[in-house]
Amino acid sequence: MSERPSWLVSFAKAILLHGVLLFILFLQLGSEPSKPRVQVKPVETVQAVAVNEIEVEAEIQRLKAAEEAKRQQEEARRQELEQARLREEQRLRELQRKQQEEQARLKEIAEAKRRHAEEEARRLMALEQRQREERERLAKLEQARVEAERLRQQEEARRKAAEEARRKAEEDAKRKAEEARRLAEEAKRKAEEQMRKAAEEAQRKAEEVKRRAEEEARKKAEEVKRRAEEEARQKAAEEARREAEEAARQKAAEEARRKAEEEARRAEEARRRAEEEARQKAAEEARRKAEEEARLQAELERRQQINATMLRIQQRVERNWLKPQSYHAGLSCIIQVRLAPGGQVMEAKVVRSSGNPAFDRSAEVAVRKASPLPIPSDPAVYAAFQEFNFLFKPQG
Amino acid sequence: MEIMFRSLRCSACLVWLLALVWGSDARAVLTIEITKGIEGAIPIAVVPFGANSALPVDVAQVIQEDLARSARFKPLPKDDMLTRPTAPEQILWQSWRVLGQDYLVIGQVQPVGAERFEVQFYLYDVFSGQELINYRLPVGTKDLRRAAHKISDLIYEKITGEPGIFSSRIAYVTVGVQNRKRLYKLQIADADGYNPRTVVISPEPLMSPVWSPDGKKLAYVSFESRRPAVYIQTLSTGERIRVAQFPGINGAPAWSPDGSKLAMTLSKDGSPDIYVLDLATRQLRRLTESAAIDTEPAWSPDGKTIAFTSDRGGSPQIYVMAASGGVPRRLTFQGNYNARPVFSRDGDRLAFVHGSSGYKIAVLNLQDKAMTVLTSGPLDESPSFAPNDRLILYATRGEGRRQLAVVSVDGKIEQRLKTEEGDVREPAWSPF
């Protein structure tokens, strides 16, 4: 605030400076305008040289004419001069006008410059102003920020305080409410206690009265009764003792029975389990035996079938064996046979000769001739006959 | 637990046992024993042989008849044949199998020059398709029949394992009448009676021809000198020697198996008795001495025994005695006539003429003394074993004259032999 007069003084100094400058400039412009008139004179001199030329007599006419012409020319030149004068005037006016215009322009320029200077000064001032304002603004902003921070802190503090207050208030309230409630309850309880006590007291007193009365009556009755009861009790005690004994006896009996039963049950269970195990084992054994038997049965059947087949084959080959009509007793040979599944003889060869070729041959022919041999379609049976031997061993 | 283990072990045992059974089953090959067969002749088909031209001999026919006569074969009649292949590639096995033929014989006869042929034949086992014989035999026209007999022999031997007898010969005596006079001929023919040729011809009786063991000579009795004499004739040369012409009977010669001696009947010392003549030393040894008739001696194959006919027991019966001498032992007791004994070549049997409601050929098994009558008579005589003992040749009366016939030793097959005109007597079958 205290700075403002200095800023105004410098501003006034600047204005004064600009005014001095403008005045100097104006003086310079006022001394200039005489120079353009000096330039016009050389043109009039040239004309005067041309007009001073005078022609001879012979040429009066022509001079006349020329005069005329000269007159005319003079006229024209006059007119021309007039015109020139007019033009000069016009030009002077023009110049004047131009001068005025120039002055006006200079004035304008000066004005402009002044305006500009003013503008500049103003702009500088404005700038300065703005800078100052900016500084002020920044300062204000800083101030505002600090202020805001302060306010925020204050607010925070306040909020905390408020919170604390609120909390405390709430706690207080709660505590107070609790306290109030507790007090109320306490009061209520005390009241109730008092009421209850009072009621109890009343009742107790009433009961006391009643009890005493009753007690009295009861005692009396009791006495009577007690005596009667004593007798009864003794009787009853005796009875009870007897009964207790009886009960104990019964209980013992019951226990014994239960134990016996339990024992029996366990024994039964054990027996049952043993039986079950035995049964299972027996079943398993039976099953195993049955399987074994089935297998043996199957094997037996297979063997029976094989035996039956052997018999059929034997009969068939014997029917086809043309025994040699003479051979030494005791001859025998073995023919090995390979059969196809249908019983066809695929191969029949002598694997042990009798030593008698005719005997061997007759046997071989018999086997081949008997083909196909009667074998069942059962593959298990066929398997046995896939390859087998014939022993040719005639008896008698 | 213990029990369980035990049963487990037990079942394991069982399984093991079963496995053993199975295992042994697998190792021991199943064997079917064949103890019986059928008796009978072997079915064989002999297909007519292929030939480009007509042949004087139907070779297949000869073979067929030979095999049929042997009693071991039953040839398929030609008309029953479904196919008639003559070369191996033409054979359809099934066509023979359906006919139940065990064997098949096919062949061809191709001329290989003037009067020369080549006989090719095959023997097959029908059920195995196996070729048993493939044989080529060059032969002249005259020998086609012999070639057929040779083929029969080969077939017979291949199948039966015994030599065939079809190339063997027979000797016999025919009695014909020529210019109102009797004419006796000692003849030799093929075993089937074909191809006879005369060895001796005589207006006086010829009797009892017997083959030397080597088959090269014949001994016989001839009455050509009005009295009976025993001759030995070498067949290849016709050379003959008279070995016995004793007073009385000179008859019934019989060769010892080694061919060095000749047993015969002589009556030079009274009643006919058996004598043995050593051919080398001409020493004669009397074998029997009885008032009865002892005749028709026969040597056992081992040379140790001589059988003969004697009526010393009241009727003609067969006796045996040691060839070295001794006491004869009667052999036949059935019927009141058993005569003309002959040993089988294996020595097991004795064939003879058995008289009971006619005269028939019978066989006595020397082991069990069982007698089997083989022929039906009514007048059969002179039995003679075939070289293989399977057949017995004998003379029989039929068609108004005496003829030759053959009977199998089991009596099942009895066949007449084709012989020429006249009575045919006293046949004798050659050795192999």
Quick structural summary:
The complex is a heterodimer of chains A (396) and B (432). Chain A is mainly alpha-helical and 396 residues long.
Would you spell out the secondary-structure blueprint of this structure?
The complex is a heterodimer of chains A (396) and B (432).
Chain A: H1 4-30, H2 35-38, H3 41-51, H4 60-320, E1 333-339, E2 345-352, H5 357-370, H6 379-385, E3 387-392
Antiparallel strand pairs in A: 1-2, 1-3
Chain B: H1 2-27, E1 31-34, E2 42-46, E3 50-51, H2 59-69, E4 73-75, H3 93-97, E5 103-113, E6 116-125, E7 130-140, H4 144-160, E8 169-178, E9 181-190, E10 197-202, E11 206-211, E12 217-222, E13 229-234, E14 240-244, E15 250-255, E16 261-266, E17 273-278, E18 284-286, E19 294-299, E20 305-310, E21 317-322, E22 329-330, E23 337-343, E24 349-355, E25 359-365, E26 371-373, E27 381-385, E28 391-398, E29 401-408, E30 414-417, E31 423-429
Parallel strand pairs in B: 2-4, 2-5, 3-5
Antiparallel strand pairs in B: 5-6, 6-7, 8-9, 8-31, 9-10, 11-12, 12-13, 13-14, 15-16, 16-17, 17-18, 19-20, 20-21, 21-22, 23-24, 24-25, 25-26, 27-28, 28-29, 29-30
Helix pairs in contact in B: 2-4
